[in-house]
Amino acid sequence: MQRTCLNCGMNVSEATRDCPKCDNALNLQHDGSTITVDIAHQGERVPEALQRLQSEIHSAKHGTAMCIRFIVGSGVIRKEAILSLRDSEFRGDIRSFEIEPHNSGAILVRLK
Ligand SMILES: [Zn+2]
Predict the structure, then answer these.
(1) What's the pLDDT at 78?
(2) Taking each helix axis from N to C terminus, what angle separates 76-91 and 46-60, rounded to the nearest 10 degrees?
(3) What is the CATH number of domain 31-110?
(4) Were 44 and a residue from 29, 49, 97, 110 both cysteine, which residue would form a disulfide, CB within 3.0 to 4.6 Å?
(5) 106 alpha carbon to ligand 1 midpoint, in Å?
(6) pLDDT for residue 66
(7) Measured CA distances, 42 to 49, 82, 106 (Å)
(8) Which residues is 109 bridged to in the sheet?
């Protein structure tokens, strides 16, 4: 797997932490974009929804997006997702998260 340094455009392997050309920290680079992922409206049970939440965060950390917007609905998935994200924030897996203003059925997760 390859990734591209957003600062200088050099192609490096996915495991590289700092760009060998411009010395930028690759895991902190982002393009300002937001990915939207619905984890609550295809009949997911809570464990499935939480697993999806964590795996999306894990794979997005290797990508270039700045945020993930999780659609969590208004039920128990939303409640458990908030608890799970609190853990992720504590562990440093994500930078922060917030309930989307004016839309309590979505949570914005800041990855980088
Ligand atoms: Zn670079």
Answers:
(1) 97
(2) 40
(3) 3.30.1370.110
(4) 49
(5) 34
(6) 97
(7) 10, 19, 15
(8) 68, 97
Gap from CA of 2 to ligand 1 centroid (Å): 13
The pTM (predicted TM-score) of the whole model is: 0.89
In this prediction, residue 83 carries a pLDDT of 98
Query: Shortest CA distance to 52 belongs to which of 77, 86, 21, 25?
Result: 77
Name 37's bridge partners: 70
pLDDT digits (tens, 9 = 90+) for 17-76: 999 999 999 989 999 999 999 999 999 999 999 999 999 999 898 889 999 999 999 999
Ligand 1 mean position, distance from CA 13 (Å): 12
Cα of 18 from ligand 1 centre, angstroms: 8
Rounded CA separation 36/53 (Å): 11
Cα 3 to middle of ligand 1, angstroms: 11
CA 11–ligand 1 middle distance (angstroms): 8
Helix (H), strand (E) at residue 2 = strand 2-4
